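Predicting holo structure, pyridoxal-5'-phosphate bound.
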Amino acid sequence: MNMTSLDNTLPAPRLGEPYLLTPGPLTTSYAVKEAMLRDWGSWDDDFRAMTAELRTRLLAMLGKGGDDFDCVPMQGSGTFSVEAMLCSFVPRDGKVLVLANGAYGQRTAQTLAYLGRDHVVLDKGDYLPPRGVEVAQILADDPEITHVVAIHCETSSGILNPVEEISEATYAAGRKLLVDSMSAFGALPLEVAQVRYEALVSSANKCIEGVPGFGFIIARKSELELAKGNSNSMSLDVHAQWATMNKTGQWRFTPPTHVVAAFLVALRAHEAEGGVAGRGARYTRNRDVMVAGMRELGFETLLKDRWLSPIIVTFFCPADPKFVFADFYALMKAKGFIIYPGKLTVVDSFRVGCIGQMDEHVMRRVTAAAKETLEEMGVKSATPPSRALEERAKLAA
Ligand SMILES: *Cc1c(COP(=O)(O)O)cnc(C)c1O
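Done. Tokens:
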């Protein structure tokens, strides 16, 4: 299968398989899935070379200055890697400022509570962005804070948080930044020459378009050295995984061999597509085409354009009483598209992902399917309730 032919339509999922308009697991290419049809010995040279290639390719995405960083893959879903980053880089007597505006920020705070790390939360609610000035103020008021954790794209609303200004405020106050770039890394630039941070995490099944099974921590080498002895989890100790991997080329415990093999195929396709810039451009086009089509039907986005990420977009449910999300979901699925329920607490919403093996042609089919579905449901207009628009008005331009 030719992975580089993105100028026309991407290969559709196999017959009967719906597109996953979800932020990972997502629709992967046939070549990625096919790579899993053989077995590898975890200690064998062939597999060790695969691990080395994976680490090198991920580091290359940091751009200039990436030599100061190293990449440590970690078994488990993305959350395991977030937890590994937190318990390894935050010393036991450290204190964290968590910038939360959705479920993943909340999960980071919960993880720190489990780990017994002191922390405070700047909770911006469902979707308002944490701003640099707010971070500066909190850090000035509390000299005990050692680390700031930011969520790059908060996948629960799809907001693209302003990591650059958060980073500037953090380092101006002499503290350290850790970034959950789970749903953004590989499609949105996080080059070390542009944004300063000590470590980031992401996983196999988001913008690199692999299958689920591991995550990875990319951290400054000096921070990796300092991490020795910090972790109060044995299996999630990033320093130990790093030291073993550098010494033996192996993972400490059974690696997800097939997932790694699939990920390498995904990484090569990522490069062939033009790396982070190419991947980001396709997702941006996906978003623009999909959002324009949905707006034509009367749907409104939760976020104003400047905060919309090319990863996933939240729409308000229409005010029309004939609109029932469960029915909308089922009818969209019958047309080959799996959408995602919303996570807002104030008003009803749903989400449509822009990532995975999909292009603008697929997105046009998505909005055509939405139009047809509204007709089937007897919904005349997709306009949201006025309460939703009042809610959105709280968001600065
Ligand atoms: C997907 C995601 C995670 C990790 O979730 P898992 O279900 O453990 O893979 C963490 N943070 C963000 C922002 C995410 O999008």
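The longest helix spans residues 275-296.
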